[in-house]
Design brief:
Distance between the termini: 28 Å
Strand order of the largest sheet: 2-3-4-5-6-7
Order of helices and strands: HHHEEHEHEHEHHEHEHHHEHHE
Oligomer: single chain
Shape: globular
Structural class: alpha/beta
Radius of gyration: 19 Å
Length: 345
């Protein structure tokens, strides 16, 4: 294991079977070595800076019916909402006053947000705050749509691939969705010049060590500018309500591996990590992550954007409590940075 980890740190590449072994045979010693090398690797590029993004959850209306997701179309118990373009702009204004220089507009695949409407929002944010980056996370769209949004000023796009195994993809998504289209969208984003991000759930239903190895190889090949991974957490109103949550330990282990696979990657310590453990995000940062995304959404809707049960939605994960987050990062030797925080290739 030690030799395998050293090989990864030196070459940033392993075979799928080697990645599988790294996951299958993990132990405390391997985790410590990976963590140390991941932190050293990140420090060479980003120092002890942790970038913050202002997250705006713009809608929990979604045309898709993904089996793991609390805002899936089929969930009749979900209290739906959609922020108006004016409300989204106001959130960005508030975030700017708080010092944020990147805004992440995230939502379900809500057909209200046509290219014209979403593009108009992006244009207005960029016109008011020219020194800011805008990241979109609005699911699968056409090449033409992505191009239009890029022309409106969108800088980054996050589209988690969820799993790099087509068979596994079919087990956690309805037949109306396909792995092939998801990957095509990611390559379209890359072709259009976005800073493109992918990612997956750790411990999702039916996931095997081989699946995780395939995910790691996908990341190695795609070299995403951003990579969002977090533990699977079940939601009570989905077909997967009785499945166990993914583990903090394995998520942090994989964060370290991803840092070594592609050293410049912008790697968030996600809200899901903070949900399964009070110190989850700190542990993510100490495993090689370098991004946190406090919530700028109106307090009235934060609980409604519930992708999984018990999502933390008040308190220190909120953008308004940036000082709380800053103090938590200081305690572990890191400092919050509110610049655009572009990837350093």
């Amino acid at each position: 294991m030690k030799e395998l980890i050293k090989k990864l740190a030196a070459s940033h590449s392993l075979s799928i079977s080697e990645y599988e072994r790294l996951v299958k045979e993990r132990n405390d010693e391997a985790a410590k070595l990976l963590r140390r090398l991941a932190v050293e690797t990140r420090q060479k590029i980003y120092g002890n800076d942790v970038y913050v993004r202002g997250l705006i959850e713009i809608s929990n209306i979604c045309r898709n019916d993904c089996y793991y997701c609390g805002i899936r179309r089929g969930n009749k118990n979900c209290e739906r909402y959609r922020l108006s373009p004016e409300e989204i702009i106001l959130c960005s204004d508030e975030g700017y006053e708080l010092g944020f220089r990147t805004f992440v507009l995230q939502g379900g695949e809500d057909e209200f947000f046509t290219d014209e409407i979403l593009g108009g929002i992006v244009r207005k944010i960029k016109a008011r705050h020219a020194d800011c980056a805008v990241t979109l996370s609005m699911g699968e769209r056409s090449f033409e749509s992505y191009k239009f949004l890029k022309d409106c000023g969108a800088d980054r796009y996050l589209l988690r691939h969820e799993t790099a195994d087509p068979e596994h993809y079919g087990k956690i998504h309805p037949s109306s969705m396909s792995y092939e289209n998801r990957v095509k969208c990611l390559h379209n984003l890359r072709e259009l010049g976005y800073q493109a991000g992918c990612g997956f759930m750790v411990g999702s239903p039916f996931q095997t060590e081989k699946n995780l190895a395939q995910d790691l190889k996908f990341i190695e090949d795609f070299k995403p500018d951003m990579c969002g991974i977090g533990p699977f957490i079940p939601h009570k109103d989905t077909p997967f309500k009785n499945f166990s949550a993914g583990s903090l330990e394995l998520t942090c282990y994989l964060l370290s591996i991803i840092r070594l696979i592609y050293p410049p990657v912008l790697l968030p310590a996600t809200t899901a990590l903070g949900t399964i453990s009070p110190t989850g995000r700190e542990q993510g940062i100490m495993s090689g992550a370098n991004v946190v995304m406090p919530n700028l959404s109106p307090v009235s809707v934060r609980k409604k954007y519930e992708l999984y049960d018990n999502k933390i939605c008040t308190g220190e994960e909120s953008a308004q409590c940036r000082e709380c987050l800053s103090n938590r990062m200081k305690k572990i030797g890191y400092k919050i940075v509110t610049s655009r925080g572009d990837v350093k290739k």
